[in-house]
């Protein structure tokens, strides 16, 4: 059975970093003492490898504990599998790091909302989503954005059934 590309990448990347470190350490001693006493160099490298492995293991444990990955047995090896929660996080990271395009017409999008206290959780989710889309807060319930994210905003409002609590506007300029 072939490993998923994410699993293969993770393990190959880790192996590559170990091999690069081995080659570098063979070619360039760090101190004169290490050049004179090569055994000291080997001991130092062994300790460093153990630290690197420990850090890597801690990272995998953290991601597993948070529910972003799972460790599954595939034939003779263990593999790392991205969970739905991990995939959602990757998607958020991609959205956050994607280059956002400013509106060509120079207008700003404004959203004003008044979500009732009974739906407080939706209000918090809405604010987090607005921030993720690139909106800036003018007041607690008034946000503006200069990027082309109208469709994403509208889709999110419909998905959360907040149509009755939210108003979207296009404005020419903002004087603060």
Structural summary, described in words:
- The protein has 176 residues and is an alpha+beta fold.
- The chain has two domains: 5-88, no CATH class; 100-171, Alpha-Beta Plaits, CATH 3.30.70.240.
- 54% of the residues lie in helices and 18% in strands.
- It has helices at residues 5-27, 32-36, 38-66, 84-97, 120-133, 150-159; strands at 69-74, 77-82, 108-113, 136-139, 142-145, 166-171.
- It has a four-stranded antiparallel sheet with strand order 4-5-3-6, with helices on one face. Strands 1-2 form a two-stranded antiparallel sheet.
- Helix 1 (5-27) runs antiparallel to helix 3 and helix 5 packs antiparallel against helix 6 (150-159).
- The model has no long low-confidence stretch (mean pLDDT 77).
**E-strand count:** 6
Please state how the strands of the largest beta sheet are arranged side by side: 4-5-3-6
- Helicity, in percent? 40-55%
Secondary-structure element pattern, one letter each: HHHEEHEHEEHE
Shape estimate: elongated
Can you give me a brief rundown of this structure?
The protein has helices spanning 5-27, 32-36, 38-66, 84-97, 120-133, 150-159; strands at 69-74, 77-82, 108-113, 136-139, 142-145, 166-171. The protein has 176 residues and is an alpha+beta fold.
């Amino acid at each position: 059975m072939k490993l998923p590309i994410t699993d293969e990448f993770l393990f190959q990347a880790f192996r590559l970093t170990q091999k690069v470190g081995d080659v570098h350490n063979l070619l360039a001693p760090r101190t004169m003492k290490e050049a004179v006493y090569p055994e000291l160099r080997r001991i130092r490298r062994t300790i460093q490898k153990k630290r690197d492995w420990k850090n890597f293991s801690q990272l995998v444990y953290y991601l597993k504990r948070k529910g972003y990955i799972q460790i599954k047995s595939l034939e003779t090896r263990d593999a790392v599998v991205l969970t739905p929660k991990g995939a959602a996080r990757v998607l958020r990271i991609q959205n956050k790091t994607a280059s956002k395009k400013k509106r060509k017409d120079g207008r700003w999008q404004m959203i004003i909302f008044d979500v009732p206290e009974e739906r407080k959780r939706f209000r918090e989710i809405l604010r987090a989503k607005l921030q993720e889309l690139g909106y800036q807060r003018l007041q607690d319930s008034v946000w503006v954005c200069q990027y082309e994210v109208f469709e994403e905003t509208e889709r999110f409002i419909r998905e959360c059934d907040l149509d009755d609590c939210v108003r979207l506007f296009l404005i020419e300029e903002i004087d603060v």
